């Protein structure tokens, strides 16, 4: 009996060799993709060459209007759901089959770049261009999605899963509007979010193409990242309690210095994450000493601990090692150290193994180099894994730069990603996910 990998390879080969339309599909047009990136970058352009197209801003709405126009020009039927997600459908030959969904987002962080998010949307449109040029009609309907407010908390995809809390709607966004008002501003309906909820199993599959936002693909000269999943995040507030005392009159051997303990703990966290096998990362990103005077030994320090990994078990194991080191440090510095888990962290979101194989086989068929890798950043795909078999395609980020005006992905790299996306869609359409 064939394994998943071999079965999908056979199906994929059959699609390419037996279906004339699929076999003759043109390659993605890199210049067209870059022109669309440049056109979209005009909305919210700042003096640094990047964009301030934050969700719910005038620039966001204008950029979305541009994208809607492009989607309609491709012959797609466009609508906006209650969560303000843009959905553009291309009919399939068999309307009884589930749609294949693919896309990303177009909103940016403040002072962001032109490729984080838009690359996935432009690649989705390019996949449609390829199919249109070849006059190839898929069996499954196809649906391009442009998620709303990805950068401000995955709002659009959370709305689809039904996990967008009502309390979140009153959170102020970077645009100066609440999520509630902003959703309405760009065409959604926060009073009818239940209509945006998608039942698990509605879609045949979901694929998100995205820039890597790291440097591995660029530095190694690899074309495609096959994303294994989006890492989970464990977040703790850490409090170190010592004894505040006069900095001039307290001898060094009689101090209960919370900052010294915090410094030792910070180094221990780095050592645990570095010296243990695996791809985990651990970070102290915030630290504050009290009372905060130059002439007072800190009696209390508050700091953060964040641990990320693709497996929850590894996050738990790393934390246990850090907690053990903390106990030793507390004993050696005559302080106490406590950890409080912050319930805003996210669980690991592995991609579907079948989807990984589809993307791998697509890369092989196109003779593009690839590697399996996790995503250290969050994406809408981490919500979509609850609704459909989900896969992610990474394309290289030059220098690993992201969330910056200097963010850049070469047109040819985007085009290769679009080629893989189109080929993966065809494989799924041919039944690659069927058991």
Tell me what the structure shows:
- It is a single chain.
- With 435 residues, the chain is an alpha+beta fold.
- 36% of the residues lie in helices and 20% in strands.
- The chain has 13 helices and 16 strands.
- Strands 1, 2, 3, 4, 5, 6, 14, 15 and 16 form a 9-stranded mixed beta sheet that branches. Strands 7, 9, 10, 12 and 13 form a 5-stranded antiparallel beta sheet that branches.
- Strand 3, helix 5 and strand 4 form a beta-alpha-beta unit.
- Helix 1 packs across helix 11.
- About 2% of the residues have low confidence.
Distance N terminus to C terminus?
12 Å
- The percentage helix is 25-40%
Q: Kindly estimate the percentage of residues that lie in beta strands according to DSSP.
A: 15-25%
Tally of alpha and pi helices: 13
Rg estimate, integer Å: 24 Å
Brief summary of the model shown:
The chain has 435 residues and is α+β, with helices and mostly antiparallel strands. The protein has helices spanning 4-18, 20-23, 30-41, 58-73, 118-133, 155-161, 179-185, 216-220, 258-275, 312-333, 353-365, 381-384, 411-429, and strands spanning 77-80, 86-90, 100-105, 142-147, 205-211, 224-230, 232-241, 245-246, 281-283, 287-290, 296-297, 300-309, 336-341, 349-350, 370-375, 390-395.
């Amino acid at each position: 009996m064939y394994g998943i990998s071999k079965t999908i390879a056979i199906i994929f080969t059959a699609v390419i060799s037996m279906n004339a339309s699929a076999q003759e599909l043109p390659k993605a047009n890199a210049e067209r993709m870059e022109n669309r990136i440049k056109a979209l970058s005009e909305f919210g352009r700042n003096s640094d060459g990047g964009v301030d197209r934050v969700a719910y801003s005038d620039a966001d709405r204008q950029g979305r209007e541009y994208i809607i126009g492009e989607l309609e020009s491709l012959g797609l039927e466009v609508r906006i759901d209650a969560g303000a997600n843009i959905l553009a459908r291309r009919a399939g030959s068999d309307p009884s089959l589930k749609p294949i969904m693919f896309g990303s987002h177009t909103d940016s962080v403040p002072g962001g770049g032109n490729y984080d998010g838009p690359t996935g949307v432009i690649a989705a449109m390019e996949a449609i261009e390829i199919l249109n040029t070849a006059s190839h009609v898929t069996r499954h309907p196809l649906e391009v999605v442009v998620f709303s407010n990805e950068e401000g908390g995955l709002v659009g995809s959370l709305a689809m899963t039904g996990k967008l809390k009502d309390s979140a709607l009153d959170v102020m966004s970077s645009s100066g509007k609440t999520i509630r008002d902003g959703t309405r501003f760009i065409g959604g309906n926060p009073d009818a979010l239940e209509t945006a909820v998608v039942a698990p199993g509605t879609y045949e599959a979901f694929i998100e193409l995205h820039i890597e936002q790291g440097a591995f693909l660029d530095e190694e000269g690899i074309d495609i990242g096959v994303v294994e999943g989006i890492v989970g995040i464990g977040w703790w507030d850490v409090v170190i309690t010592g004894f505040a005392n006069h900095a001039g009159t307290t001898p060094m051997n009689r101090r209960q210095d919370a900052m010294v303990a915090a410094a030792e703990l910070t180094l221990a966290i780095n050592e645990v994450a570095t010296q243990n096998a695996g791809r985990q990362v651990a970070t102290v990103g915030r630290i504050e000493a009290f009372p905060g005077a130059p002439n007072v030994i800190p009696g209390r320090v508050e700091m953060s601990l964040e641990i990320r990994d693709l497996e929850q078990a590894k996050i738990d194991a790393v934390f246990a090692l850090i907690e053990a080191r903390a106990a030793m440090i507390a004993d050696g510095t005559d302080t106490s150290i406590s950890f409080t888990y912050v319930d805003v962290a996210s669980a690991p979101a592995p991609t579907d193994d079948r989807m990984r194989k589809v993307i791998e086989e697509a890369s092989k068929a196109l003779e593009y180099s690839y590697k399996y890798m996790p995503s250290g950043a969050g994406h809408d795909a981490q919500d979509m894994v609850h609704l459909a078999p989900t896969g992610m395609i990474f394309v290289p980020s030059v220098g690993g730069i992201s969330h910056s005006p200097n963010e850049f992905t070469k047109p040819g790299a985007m085009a290769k990603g679009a080629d893989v996306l189109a080929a993966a869609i065809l494989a799924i359409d041919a039944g690659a996910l069927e058991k």
